[in-house]
Amino acid sequence: MKRLLILAIIAAAGWLAWKSHRDAQGPEVIDHPVYAEMRVTTILENRAFEFALFIRSSDVDDCRTRARRSWEKTLAACATCRFTEPTCQEKLPPRYARLFDDVPIPSTYLSATRGTRGERDGRLVVYGLTDQEGEFVCEQMKSKILENYQGTAHCVRASGG
């Protein structure tokens, strides 16, 4: 259970770091989004985990400015974490784009919808968990993120296959 709490803290910290670099004067409506994709892998107690964070940014500059900084603080506290260079793209592949429609996938994931102009919509998946662990970690991430996020957040349960 301790390693699951560590996973939740790592993932929530990445999200909160993204939020901490927000532009309070962001657009009211994001008409032409650019999607950031960031991945972190780690091994805890001989188990491999991958975090995939997808953020709907307002434009390329918004995506590039926030993407790298969002994980830097998180990774400084995680000696076993390995970071993949973030990417910014106008369209996500269909398998990831459906996350923004809250379509269930084989892993439970966190779905967050912005509440202010400075916040962004995001989806956070942790691969390598059982269904029960995924639900637990997602609920922990949701609670942590909602401490500083004015938007809404909920867990999309695994599809079971």
Task: Please state the oligomeric state of the protein chains shown.
Answer: single chain
Q: What is the CATH class designation?
A: Alpha Beta
Cα end-to-end separation: 24 Å
Radius of gyration over C-alpha positions, nearest whole angstrom: 15 Å
Number of H/I helices: 4
Percent in strands: 25-35%
What about the largest sheet? Answer: 6 strands, antiparallel
CATH architecture: 3-Layer(aba) Sandwich
Q: Predict the CATH topology.
A: Chemotaxis protein chec
Q: Major sheet: order of its strands? A: 3-1-2-5-4-6
The overall number of domains is 1
The helix content is 25-40%
What is the overall pLDDT average?
A: 83
Unreliable stretches covering 5 or more consecutive residues: none
Count the beta strands.
6
Q: Descriptors for this entry?
A:
161 residues, alpha+beta, Chemotaxis protein chec, 6 strands
How would you summarize the topology of this molecule?
Elements: H1 2-20, E1 34-44, E2 47-57, H2 60-76, E3 82-89, H3 94-97, E4 109-113, E5 121-127, H4 131-145, E6 152-156
Antiparallel strand pairs: 1-2, 1-3, 2-5, 4-5, 4-6
Helix pairs in contact: 1-2, 1-4
Concise summary:
The protein is α+β, with helices and mostly antiparallel strands and about 160 residues long.
Explain what this protein looks like in three dimensions:
With 161 residues, the chain is an alpha+beta fold. It has one domain (2-22, 30-151): Chemotaxis protein chec (3-Layer(aba) Sandwich), CATH 3.40.1550. It has four helices and six strands. It has helices spanning 2-20, 60-76, 94-97, 131-145, and strands spanning 34-44, 47-57, 82-89, 109-113, 121-127, 152-156. The chain has a six-stranded antiparallel β-sheet, with helices on one face. The longest helix is centred in the N-terminal third of the chain and has 19 residues, at 2-20. It is globular, with a radius of gyration of 15 Å.
